[in-house]
């Protein structure tokens, strides 16, 4: 065994030397080629390609590849070793094998999709299905040109029939800093299928916590840019994430994959910009306070809860009716007369409005008709008998034109929205019974909030829809692909509105219903989103394996899912074992104990340790106490745009999407978490943030599902640490 390993290492070292030599040589040659700065188009194109190669080779020279796959096409003839890296590179001399194959290339898919066995494997090339035999799948770790590790995950000539997880487990065991990383060397088969799925569908992915949803979505973007280079561009792709700090947390992955310029935003920021609205944080904080800061006093959630109702597509009909009422009564009563003696009959204006400009959406129709009237005035002015009359008519005409424009409806989404909710007076011809289509409680609370000048997050989809009905999509950029992370917190209306701005329903929608702690606004079943698309435009995938946490943590979290959330979307762990989950009962002082736990865990070799509390108020109070004892502890309060790593204190609901080497859940007891499914979901989110170590501190009175989860997963009790 040792010998085999030695010879594999030796072989890879020789191969690496040769590859680096060739990369250096190619790079040297390119660097010695003078840069073309002239105006000749063909030369400019050639220069751009040289520049691209210079960049690629500069990256390749430190880490040329990470994997090797020996494949025998057709099951006979030569066994070719294929080296797979983050970027592809050709050899200097023409050859049937590139120097490095891009991980996104069709043949490289075998490296991910092959799960072992002796049967032929296949991949889809542009010329059709290619079949053959896989002989070897090898992971090669190269850092800064040094060969650090060689690990065979499949060898046809050895006894193991399946691809082993050993290298994956080694990778997962590493500690994490403050950024999410790429996983190109260890993408798993179920993830690869999603990454390489065809572009023009709305993929809906239910994935358990830690199943790699965020990571997979980012790799999928890199894949789409490679596979559909002629059809898509990075600037026309967008990632929606829950907050700006999360965007910062994921911001390294795409550059690592050689992808830049993809738009990243929160839905609220994107919508506010499109609508030209200034959103205050007051509304967001009010919502969070209402749902998260009142321990045990969670408002009752029904289909008529304002956030849920406004997020459903039930408002669509009401909005369409309102806009159509405005549209049909838009042309002001009476003929238009710019000055005495000149009359443009309403009949004529109606003809322009109803016939000539009918294809345009209302706001554009109004613009066009008014422009036409303006042109008509200019023609009429030419008939003026004298210079004095011209001057007088010009003045009068301008005044009356302005007054006439003012008689048209105000095509402003917020005004129309306010009219629908009767926060301002609607036009006289609107039917009096219209408000009955909206539940009274929603009507009342929305009216009150709009009167205070607050636009909440849940108002954005209806506002955007009104905007779209008024203006269409002219002048607005449509997206080639939209990624929605933490999609369980998105409402169906948000997705429906985004679909208006997506080409070919090209979406990757990822989430986890078990983490649906924003259930007051999000979906309760994926069906709610699937129904927005025609069956041929959508497909559903499930990711069940969890890569983030140790088996012990996953077993414990599964216990919370079973007993508390009452969900059967359980996670399947990768066989990576660590310390048992630890439950610690407070002694004389809660703060002392939390402090001692933090001191113990941060003294170990962990880079990120978090203390998770139930509310922001708890986090702030605890932070005040801990910051006296720990120099470099940070408070995460939702207003941050950057995630710093290290030691953090944060409310559990803000930890979604993040991960920490070790997590301490403070007050994991009935003082903070009840028996309801929603409380269990919060704890599930918190517990699944931990990679290696999870401690729960409590007062001895715990919800029954926690007690049961601890028993079933053989969690440890007490302070005998290590
Ligand atoms: N194939 C893989 N190889 C190595 N690491 C992986 C793999 N898949 C996922 N991971 C790691 O697992 C962790 C979880 O990934 P990610 O945050 O993308 O999951 P998620 O499903 O979005 O999680 P959550 O819903 O809990 O926020 C990350 O550290 C990621 O690097």
TrEMBL record:
<dbReference type="GO" id="GO:0005829">
    <property type="term" value="C:cytosol"/>
</dbReference>
<feature type="domain" description="UvrD-like helicase ATP-binding">
    <location>
        <begin position="186"/>
        <end position="550"/>
    </location>
</feature>
<dbReference type="GO" id="GO:0003677">
    <property type="term" value="F:DNA binding"/>
</dbReference>
<keyword id="KW-0378">Hydrolase</keyword>
<dbReference type="GO" id="GO:0043138">
    <property type="term" value="F:3'-5' DNA helicase activity"/>
</dbReference>
<keyword id="KW-0175">Coiled coil</keyword>
<dbReference type="InterPro" id="IPR000212">
    <property type="entry name" value="DNA_helicase_UvrD/REP"/>
</dbReference>
<feature type="coiled-coil region">
    <location>
        <begin position="2"/>
        <end position="33"/>
    </location>
</feature>
<dbReference type="GO" id="GO:0005524">
    <property type="term" value="F:ATP binding"/>
</dbReference>
<keyword id="KW-0547">Nucleotide-binding</keyword>
<feature type="binding site">
    <location>
        <begin position="207"/>
        <end position="214"/>
    </location>
    <ligand>
        <name>ATP</name>
    </ligand>
</feature>
<protein>
    <submittedName>
        <fullName>Helicase UvrD</fullName>
    </submittedName>
</protein>
<dbReference type="GO" id="GO:0000725">
    <property type="term" value="P:recombinational repair"/>
</dbReference>
<dbReference type="GO" id="GO:0016787">
    <property type="term" value="F:hydrolase activity"/>
</dbReference>
<dbReference type="InterPro" id="IPR013986">
    <property type="entry name" value="DExx_box_DNA_helicase_dom_sf"/>
</dbReference>
<dbReference type="Pfam" id="PF13538">
    <property type="entry name" value="UvrD_C_2"/>
</dbReference>
<dbReference type="InterPro" id="IPR027417">
    <property type="entry name" value="P-loop_NTPase"/>
</dbReference>
<dbReference type="InterPro" id="IPR027785">
    <property type="entry name" value="UvrD-like_helicase_C"/>
</dbReference>
<dbReference type="InterPro" id="IPR014016">
    <property type="entry name" value="UvrD-like_ATP-bd"/>
</dbReference>
<keyword id="KW-0347">Helicase</keyword>
<keyword id="KW-0067">ATP-binding</keyword>
<dbReference type="Pfam" id="PF13245">
    <property type="entry name" value="AAA_19"/>
</dbReference>
């Amino acid at each position: 065994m040792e010998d085999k390993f030695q010879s594999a290492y030796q072989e890879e070292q020789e191969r690496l030397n040769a590859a680096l030599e060739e990369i250096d040589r190619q790079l040297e040659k390119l660097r010695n080629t003078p840069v073309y700065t002239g105006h000749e188009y063909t030369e400019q194109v050639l220069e751009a390609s040289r520049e691209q190669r210079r960049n690629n080779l500069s990256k390749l020279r430190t880490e040329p590849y990470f994997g090797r796959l020996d494949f025998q096409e057709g099951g006979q003839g030569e066994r070719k070793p294929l080296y797979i890296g983050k970027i592809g590179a050709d050899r200097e001399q023409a050859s049937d094998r590139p120097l490095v194959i891009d991980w996104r290339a069709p043949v490289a898919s075998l490296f991910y999709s092959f799960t072992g066995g002796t049967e032929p494997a296949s991949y889809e090339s542009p010329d059709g299905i290619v079949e053959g035999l896989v002989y070897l799948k090898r992971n090669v770790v190269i850092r800064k040109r040094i060969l650090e590790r060689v690990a065979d995950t499949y060898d046809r000539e050895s006894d193991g029939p399946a691809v082993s997880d050993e290298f994956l487990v080694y990778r997962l065991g590493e500690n994490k800093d403050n950024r999410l990383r790429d996983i190109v060397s260890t993408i798993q088969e179920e993830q690869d299928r999603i990454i390489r799925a065809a572009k023009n569908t709305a993929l809906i992915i239910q994935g358990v916590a830690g199943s790699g949803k965020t990571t997979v979505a980012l790799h999928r973007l890199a894949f789409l840019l490679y596979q559909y280079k002629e059809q898509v561009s990075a600037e026309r792709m967008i990632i929606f994430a829950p907050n700006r700090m999360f965007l910062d947390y994921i911001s390294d992955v795409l550059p690592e994959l050689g992808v830049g310029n993809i738009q990243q935003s929160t839905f609220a920021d994107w919508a506010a910009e499109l609508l030209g609205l200034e959103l205050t944080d007051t509304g967001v904080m009010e919502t969070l306070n209402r749902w998260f800061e009142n321990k045990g006093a969670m408002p009752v959630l029904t289909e008529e809860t304002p956030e849920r109702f406004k997020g459903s597509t039930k408002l669509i009909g009401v909005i369409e009716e309102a806009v159509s009422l405005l549209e049909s009564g838009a042309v002001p009563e009476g003929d238009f007369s710019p000055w005495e003696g000149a009359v443009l009959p309403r009949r004529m204006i109606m003809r322009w409005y109803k016939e000539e400009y009918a294809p345009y959406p209302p706001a554009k129709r109004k613009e066009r008709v008014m422009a036409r009237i303006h042109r008509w005035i200019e023609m009429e002015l030419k008939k003026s008998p004298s210079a004095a009359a011209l001057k007088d008519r010009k003045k009068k005409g301008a005044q009356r034109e302005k007054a006439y424009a003012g008689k048209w409806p105000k095509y402003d989404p917020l005004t129309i929205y306010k009219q629908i909710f009767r926060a301002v007076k609607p036009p006289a011809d609107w039917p009096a019974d219209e408000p009955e289509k909206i539940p009274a409680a929603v009507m009342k609370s929305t009216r009150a909030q709009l009167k205070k000048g607050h636009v909440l997050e849940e108002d954005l989809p209806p506002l955007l829809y009104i905007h779209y009905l008024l203006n269409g999509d002219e002048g607005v950029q449509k997206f080639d692909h939209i990624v929605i992370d933490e999609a369980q917190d998105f409402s169906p209306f948000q997705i429906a509105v985004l679909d208006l701005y997506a080409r070919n329903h090209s979406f990757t929608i990822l989430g986890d219903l078990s983490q649906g702690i924003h259930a007051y606004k999000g979906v309760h079943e994926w069906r709610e989103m699937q129904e927005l698309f025609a069956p041929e435009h959508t497909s559903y995938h499930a990711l069940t394996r969890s890569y983030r946490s140790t088996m012990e943590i996953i077993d414990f979290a599964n216990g919370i899912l079973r007993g508390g959330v009452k969900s059967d979307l359980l996670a399947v762990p990768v066989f990576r074992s660590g310390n048992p989950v630890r439950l610690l009962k407070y002694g004389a002082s809660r703060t002392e104990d939390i402090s001692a736990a933090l001191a113990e865990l941060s003294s170990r070799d962990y880079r990120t340790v978090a203390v998770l509390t139930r509310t922001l108020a708890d986090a702030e109070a605890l932070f005040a106490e801990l910051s006296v004892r720990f120099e470099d502890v940070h408070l995460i309060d939702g207003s941050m745009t950057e995630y710093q790593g290290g030691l953090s204190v944060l409310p559990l609901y803000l930890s979604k999407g993040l991960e920490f080497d070790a997590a301490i859940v403070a007050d994991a007891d009935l003082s903070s978490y009840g028996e309801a499914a929603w409380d269990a979901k919060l704890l599930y989110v918190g517990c699944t943030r931990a990679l290696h170590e999870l401690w729960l501190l409590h007062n001895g009175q715990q919800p029954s599902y926690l007690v049961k989860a601890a028993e079933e997963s053989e969690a440890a009790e007490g302070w005998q640490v290590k």
